[in-house]
Amino acid sequence: MDAGANASAATAAEPHCRPATGAVGPDRGGGGLTIRHRLFLLVVACTAPMLLLSFAIIWQLAHRERETSRQAITYASRSIVSAVDAQFRHYIAVGQALAISPSLQTGDLAAFRAEAERAMTVVPGGWLTLADTTGQQLVNTLIPAGEPLPRLAPAVAEDGRRAFASKTVKIADVVFGPVAKAPVTGIGVPVFRGGEPAYYLLVGVPAASFRALLNDGRMPEGWLVAVIDSRGNLVARSRDHDRLVGQPAAAGWRAAMHRDGLIETETLEGRPVLTANTVSPLTGWAVGVASERALLEARVWRTLAVAGLASVMVSVASGLLAAWIARRITVPIQALETGAGLLERGERVRFGETRVPEIDRALHAFDAAAAELTAHERAVATLQSELWHVSRLSEMGQMAAALAHELNQPLTALAVYVGGCERLMKADPFDDARREQMRNLLKAISDQALRAGEIIKQLRSFVQKGEGERRVESAGKVMREAARLAMTAAKHKDVTFRCNVDDTASILVNKVQIQQVVFNLIRNAIEAMETSARREIDVTVVVGDGQVETSIADTGCGLAPEIAARLFMPFASTKTHGMGIGLSVCRDIIEAHRGRIWADSIPDGGTVFRFTLPVVSSDPADDSEPTET
Ligand code: ADP
User: Which ligand 1 atom minimizes the distance to the CA of 572?
Assistant: First the structure.
């Protein structure tokens, strides 16, 4: 906290020393990121990978959700195909068993009918139709025996012909049964006798019997299940079965019905669905399990939304936490900064507990340092004011000692002469001779009184006592030291010091006396600025023309006109408690050193005092002090 008479020597290139009473600078932090920003970056650095990871997981979850739905409809479709096939295998087994019935081989149709009616009890809702190779029905368990029977429907008769040709069981696509009066299906078994086609045996079932296999009671919401025959007509449908059975399925599905897999189609109602299609190798029929795309996507989006919201909430919470922590850190730091500013102005600040151990320790350390510094500064201030006082006392002491010493002689003489006068006045007769003696004594008294006055005038010569102690000194060093002493003394007076010292010359001086001059001039300058708004002092030392010129300029009240002419006379003062000795002593000291001292008014306000001293050498007399800060 040294007010720093900045001794940047050499050139006059340093216009500004550090101010004696520095205010807290507006931007001490320089560039760089604040703690708040750094913590924010930390949060971003921590949460960004976490967010990315959570988004990857969320995406994976959504993908799985989608896959699970796809698998679910695929499995459902496969299991329903298995159930349909199992039902058909049952019909085929019954049909094949009847096809090899002995009564059929012998042509005993009455016996065969009885056998068929028994067999049909294991085919729920089923019936048996037996036709000859022309398509004429011979037995129909739906129509009582003896009643006339119709011919087979042309499509069924065509199936029969193909069955005879291929000698395989034929799966009947859905048709409207004229006898059952409902959409029907079934299996057709060609019966040969002696290797020749004899009968076409049909196990018929209503299409509705496949409806129960769709399991739609336990289907998830938004699912639609349907079975279509090899021509793409609906055999069973979980929704609107009665209205749509036998009708062609949706075109999109029919186009892809011969291969297994997932297809994006529309239902007959026009709703977009994802359909898992499974083709039965036994019947050539297909089972489609469709899930509404809107519902499917809704589930995925719900998962995305919940997980995304959770991630965002975690990020926001981390951000808020970071902001809170940053505040817990920055507030005490700001308090420290404020405390430092106050301390510079000589005030103290008390810090509260932050409950952050490191910060509390720092605050306590600062507090302790501040307490010590304040105590130290108080001690220094006391010392300075004592120094100030002592300098005044020393002037007075010097004067008093000189007065006592010099006045002693004339006063003693005065007392002796006055005694002589008394004695002469008592003498009788008081003749001319005594009158003459009396005149001589009064003349001597007058002379001694004049001498006493002369002594007071010549008091300034006392300072020449130090002449014998002169040494060659660095002009810069002498002035710097003196300036620093005065500035330190004026530390709390809110004065800005600038100094510009040429350190290249040496002078032969009594250092203490020259420093007393500088000290006096700076002290006067500070006192002259007491009521000034702007308080600045410029100390300049320049070398030239075989002389070192030192100037001390202030921004004070300026020279009072009534004193300007007798500024350097003893007892010339405008101050209430001033003695008017300082400047006269300064002049005596400077003149005793073969120099000159004078003062000028500064047009903008203020005064500049200058004094010169002869240079003894242009080389630096000694080492320059390092620059003070
Ligand atoms: P004192 O300080 O005791 O008055 P000085 O001899 O030091 O005695 O100063 C004499 C007078 O010169 C001061 O009273 C003041 O009026 C005037 N003076 C001295 N220095 C300055 C200055 N820097 N600015 C204005 N007036 C000054």
Answer: 10
